[in-house]
Design goal:
mainly alpha; Ammonium transporter fold; 15 helices; 0% strand
């Protein structure tokens, strides 16, 4: 669909441009959030994996990623209409439904391209927390590129593109519960199962080396998430305001519920618990942000804080070494939020809600069923594709995808980058 300059709204465009910057800022925030939780010998390795996503995924998005996510009218995958960003400044994605979603847009198409790019960057970056301390950087480079093209773009097409089969079915995902969090969360689980456990885990204690760094990262994530969720309204109006408030309330409620459970079960309310709880709430509200109102975001956040805490407490029993709890927070939190949307989605908040949630007047189970299908489809596709990519790389790359025991003991900073994060020698 062609962009009409007379439809441009300067206020909407300014807000989405601001949101683009906020969402990009989340990736360095994520790097600090994760970086503080690893041991000091691996902090640069963690920062590098996240920052590298900002470089490689950006180029891939411009060359082919955006086109595969938003090009054409095929319901499974985009085409090559926008390869190399051809026509991306003058044409919106195709809309085969006849509803003409993009006719409602008051921002230039190229601004939409840039906004969606920031989601493509941070989604695979989330996986790094699960594989911390043990993946070769060269393997990460190959995995990142292949995953961005073969996994992220198709799922984004299904859910975010008007041509996508989940979009047409009626599944709702305001800002990436399935596309970002469930997608990355199941990939993280598959990755840790393929890579195996860290040397010495779980017998060896591997505490965070800098919780202040993690708290700083949490603050940046919370701040940037306003752009992530409220920016997804693609306007500066009431839905954006609702999404922003919902985002904050869910994070606050999840932090509180996490700390209550942590205090009851462990005897202490910790700073790491506060950080993890807040992020769990941010994750869970992401698919719901512009579709719910009233006390719903507080309820969603409170449930997410409790469920994600309990999920993390199970990883030792289940025997998977998710270093920084990506599975418990992002996979579980994304599922919780996506399914709770089927209970709380309110047409009075957003007219895009066709089937009201089960707990809303005149609501039913139709939306909940669509949400279940979206969750299951994302889990199956991303899980299988991630497994295939990792197994191929394991065979194809010299040395495989995991560092050897000696390099793991030295730490990724020295073994992969020949640097150290902290030097205590006199200068």
């Amino acid at each position: 669909m062609e962009f009409l300059p007379e439809s441009l709204n300067a206020g909407d465009t300014a807000w989405v441009l601001t949101s683009i910057a906020l969402v990009l800022f989340m990736t360095p925030g994520l790097a600090f959030f994760y970086g503080g939780m690893v041991r000091s010998k691996n902090v640069l390795g963690m920062l590098m994996q996240n920052f590298f996503s900002m470089g490689l995924v950006s180029v891939i998005w411009a060359v082919v990623g955006y086109s595969l996510a938003f090009g054409g009218t095929n319901k499974w995958i985009g085409n090559f209409d926008f390869v190399g960003l051809k026509d991306a400044s003058t044409m919106y994605p195709a809309d085969p439904s006849g509803v003409e979603w993009f006719s409602l847009f008051t921002i230039p198409p190229i601004v939409f391209v840039a906004f969606q790019l920031m989601f493509a960057i941070i989604t695979p970056a989330l996986i790094t927390g699960a594989i911390a301390d043990r993946m070769r950087f060269s393997a990460w480079v190959w995995f990142l590129g292949l995953w961005a093209v073969l996994v992220y773009s198709p799922v984004a097409h299904w859910v975010f593109s008007p041509a996508g089969w989940l979009f047409e079915r009626g599944a709702l995902d305001f800002a990436g519960g399935a596309v970002v969090h469930i997608n990355a969360g199941i990939a993280a689980l598959v990755a840790v199962l393929v890579l195996g456990k860290r040397k010495g885990w779980p017998q060896k204690v591997m505490p965070p080396h800098s919780l202040p760094l993690t708290m700083l990262g949490t603050g940046i994530l919370w701040f940037g998430w306003f752009g992530f969720n409220a920016g997804s309204a693609l306007t500066s109006g009431g839905i954006a305001g609702q999404a922003l408030l919902n985002t904050h309330m869910a994070a606050a409620a999840a932090m509180l519920s996490w700390l209550v459970v942590e205090k009851v079960k462990g005897g202490h309310a910790t700073t790491l618990g506060a950080a993890s709880g807040a992020v769990a709430g941010l994750v869970a509200i992401t698919p719901c942000a512009g579709f719910v109102g009233g006390l719903a975001p507080i309820i969603i956040g409170a449930i997410a804080g409790i469920v994600c805490y309990l999920a993390i407490s199970m990883k030792n029993k289940l025997g998977y070494d998710d270093s920084l709890d990506v599975v418990g927070v992002h996979l579980v939190g994304g599922i919780v939020g996506s399914l709770l949307l089927g209970f709380f989605a309110d047409p009075k908040i957003n007219s895009l809600v066709v089937d009201a949630g089960l707990f809303i007047n005149d609501g039913g189970t139709a939306l909940l069923m669509d949400q279940l299908v979206a969750v299951a489809a994302t889990l199956a596709f991303s899980g299988v594709m991630t497994f295939v990519i990792l197994k191929v790389l394991q065979v194809a790359l010299p040395g495989g995808i995991r560092v050897d025991d000696e390099d793991e003991e030295r730490g990724l900073d020295l073994s992969q980058h020949s640097e150290v994060a902290y030097s205590y020698a006199e200068r």
